[in-house]
Amino acid sequence: MGVLAFPLFLPLLWRLIVVNASFPTTLEGPFKPVTVPFDNQSYHGNAIDLPDTDPQIQRTVQGFEPEQVSVSLSSDYDSVWISWITGDSQIGDDITPLDPESVYSVVQYGIEGSQMSNEEVGYSLVYNQLYPFEGLQNYTSGIIHHVRLTGLEPSTLYQYQCGDPYISAMSDVFYFRTMPPSSPTNYPHRVAVVGDLGLTYNTSTTFGHLLSNHPDLLVLVGGISYADMYLTNGTGSDCYPCSFDESPIHETYQPRWDYWGRFMQPLVANVPTMLVGGKHEIEPQAEDQIFVSYSSRFAFPSEESGSSSSAYYSFNAGGIHFVILNPYTYYDKSCKASTLLFIIFIFDSYSPGFCISILSIQ
Ligand SMILES: *[C@@H]1O[C@H](CO)[C@@H](O)[C@H](O)[C@H]1NC(C)=O
Ligand SMILES: *[C@@H]1O[C@H](CO)[C@@H](O)[C@H](O)[C@H]1NC(C)=O
Ligand SMILES: *[C@@H]1O[C@H](CO)[C@@H](O)[C@H](O)[C@H]1NC(C)=O
Ligand SMILES: *[C@@H]1O[C@H](CO)[C@@H](O)[C@H](O)[C@H]1NC(C)=O
């Protein structure tokens, strides 16, 4: 949708396939940086959102069974976060938030091939997206669970199940591989960085490319669900400001986030995925709250990396140290951050020669 709808890295992805037959891994490098001009012949026009009726985005679980499962990294290889949602969301005039304490947050896990005899307990929450305006509908989420696993071995495949074992509501078994230890000689094989993923038919193409290339780590940069291209009544548009200039606030249709979580589960339940908020995740609502859905649905290694906000955090992936900076949050009384560039530094903290920085102006 919109100008930035296409995955920024798809052209590069295709070029690599054509040139090298398969993706090189970082261990085959170092490579000279490659810049590929944007192929505006193949990538013009608007991407079309998956409709509400698409089978891949339906709620298929019963009761309080987990759905929208994802794994993300903590600050180092020995720890990850597992996140999921239980219970159904509600939207409309008469909504009652679920009690987050009513369902336990438990992950059972072990090294692949052994018993899942380790157990970790986490916390749960619900969030609301409220619009104090006549005619607009409010949303309250299902129960969102986050559990941090610790004491993990490096470069090791783990299997896990999440849910509430006391009500027999456990998920399927999923797998994740931990990052290698942080040193100048250890790197994840493949790191996929994708911007503006959205939830369109073209997202399906990118999703397929990602799955088949088995990344060790996925970094998703802003433009995640595009729920902010919709009114609260579920009417969407390719161009929000052109279509909905009457609306008293920039509305969203939060069920799109649930659709996105279901669609992405086969990938993000098995590949550690780090999110970087962008302008589509701001989603202003009552009492001037912003980024509520983004920061509630996913876990971030903020506390572990000494940050008080999901807008800023850092983590190690082998010899790479990622620093994530969200430019859409005030960071200084005198400077509105949204006038800045959107910057991610991906650099190796050990060897000064290895440095990638990704800039995107939003
Ligand atoms: C594609 O880019 C070229 C070079 O920048 C430009 O001349 C051409 O008009 C563009 N075509 C479309 C369809 O945007
Ligand atoms: C939505 O929530 C706001 C803030 O609590 C409230 O003012 C408004 O009346 C609610 N809207 C509906 C339709 O219930
Ligand atoms: C994007 O999806 C549309 C169908 O909605 C398709 O016609 C188009 O070819 C796709 N674009 C790319 C670059 O795959
Ligand atoms: C949603 O609201 C818009 C603006 O008020 C209106 O034009 C549209 O018909 C509504 N759609 C539905 C499905 O009610």
Automatic annotation (TrEMBL):
Residue span, Purple acid phosphatase N-terminal domain: 66-178
Matches recorded under InterPro entries: Metallo-depent_PP-like (IPR029052), PAPs-like (IPR039331), PAPs_N (IPR015914), Purple_acid_Pase-like_N (IPR008963)
Record keywords, A-Z: Signal
Top-level taxon: Eukaryota
Signal peptide residue numbers: 1-21
Family annotation (PANTHER family): ACID PHOSPHATASE RELATED, PURPLE ACID PHOSPHATASE
Full protein name: Purple acid phosphatase N-terminal domain-containing protein
Annotated organism of origin: Salix suchowensis
